[in-house]
């Protein structure tokens, strides 16, 4: 079987070759026909033997074989073409599968990066929020006694005060009620304060001071840093006091006589008094 290949592709046997094969078959038959005419007396005389000799003639076999060879050539060509097409289709499918897998990998990687970036941004936002909340808490002001009210006002007159008027305000509080620092600061006094009984004085970051008097017990010491809202003592009735309460003062300095309006001071820092 013979077939030709050109530039890597199978090609169907040319018309010239098929025509040549057909011509050769016809020529062979013609020759056989001539020989048969000449030898007809011999066939007549020899009977079957002459017919047998004609069937075994090489020319006849060649003429009969030519179209069979051409058909086999066509079959070989078709088989090779189908094999090449199947190979091309297989390679195309493999490339498509690789491209699909690569596209999925890139998509998954992009999704993973996006998720990681989102998580990182959310984490950073939470950290910033926590820091801001901490700063706000450090700079916040609170009332010294939770859920209380002012029972005696600022500069209220009377014989109970040596200066002739109240230098602070009194918050209603029973015995051993928790007392809190109104803001962050440093303790500059903690102990007996004469008429104030057990008292605490705290210097704050803005340069102002606050004082807490008539305490039953003290929970901080001089030089200690305190946070806004930190419990520093328990209320009581020590010193010049007619009963348990908290005496609270706002001051421009650490000493007695530097008092400022505590209600205005607390309101200035956003508190309702």
Break the fold down into its secondary structure elements and pairings:
Layout: E1 4-6, E2 9-11, H1 15-38, H2 40-46, H3 48-55, H4 58-139, E3 150-152, E4 169-172, E5 178-180, E6 185-192, E7 198-204, E8 209-218, E9 225-226, E10 231-235, E11 245-251, E12 259-260, H5 262-268
Antiparallel strand pairs: 1-2, 3-4, 4-11, 5-10, 6-7, 6-9, 7-8, 8-10, 8-11, 11-12
What would your notes on this structure say?
The protein is an alpha+beta fold and 273 residues long. Among the domains are: 73-139; 149-269, Glucose Permease (Domain IIA). It is built from five helices and twelve strands. The chain has helices spanning 15-38, 40-46, 48-55, 58-139, 262-268; strands at residues 4-6, 9-11, 150-152, 169-172, 178-180, 185-192, 198-204, 209-218, 225-226, 231-235, 245-251, 259-260. The strands form two sheets. Strands 3, 4, 5, 6, 7, 8, 9, 10, 11 and 12 form a ten-stranded antiparallel beta sheet that branches. A two-stranded antiparallel sheet has the order 1-2. α1 (15-38) packs antiparallel against α4 and α2 (40-46) packs across α3 (48-55). Mean pLDDT is 82; it is low at 1-10 and 15-54.
Weakly predicted, low-confidence segments: 1-10, 15-54
Structural class: alpha+beta
SSE succession: EEHHHHEEEEEEEEEEH
Number of strands: 12
* Helix residue percentage: 40-55%
Determine the number of helices (DSSP H or I, runs of at least 4 residues): 5
- Mean pLDDT equals 82
CATH superfamily of one domain: Glucose Permease (Domain IIA)
CATH architecture descriptor name of one domain: Distorted Sandwich
Protein name: M23 family peptidase
GO molecular function, one term: metalloendopeptidase activity
Pfam families: Peptidase_M23
Organism: Streptomyces diacarni
């Amino acid at each position: 079987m013979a077939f030709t290949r050109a530039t890597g592709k199978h090609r169907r046997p040319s018309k010239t070759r098929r025509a040549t094969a057909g011509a050769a078959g016809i020529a062979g038959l013609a020759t056989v026909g001539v020989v048969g005419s000449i030898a007809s007396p011999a066939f007549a005389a020899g009977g079957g033997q002459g017919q047998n000799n004609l069937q075994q003639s090489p020319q006849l076999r060649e003429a009969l074989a030519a179209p069979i060879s051409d058909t086999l050539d066509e079959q070989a060509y078709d088989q090779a073409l189908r094999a090449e097409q199947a190979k091309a289709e297989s390679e195309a499918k493999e490339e498509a599968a690789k491209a699909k897998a690569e596209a999925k990998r890139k998509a998954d990687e992009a999704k993973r990066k996006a998720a990681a970036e989102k998580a990182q941004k959310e984490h950073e936002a939470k950290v910033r929020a926590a820091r801001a909340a901490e700063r706000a808490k450090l700079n916040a002001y609170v009332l010294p006694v939770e859920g209380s009210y002012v029972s005696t006002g600022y500069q209220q007159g009377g014989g109970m005060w040596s200066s002739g008027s109240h230098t602070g305000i009194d918050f209603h509080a029973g015995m051993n009620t928790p007392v809190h620092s109104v803001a962050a600061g440093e303790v500059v006094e903690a102990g007996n304060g004469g008429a104030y009984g057990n008292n605490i004085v705290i210097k704050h970051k803005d340069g102002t001071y606050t004082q807490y008097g008539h305490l039953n017990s003290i929970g901080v010491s001089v030089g200690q840093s305190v946070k806004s809202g930190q419990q520093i003592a328990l209320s009581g009735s020590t010193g010049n006091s007619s009963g348990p309460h908290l005496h609270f003062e706002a001051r421009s300095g650490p000493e007695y006589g530097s008092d400022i309006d505590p209600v205005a001071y607390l309101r200035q820092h956003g508190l309702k008094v």
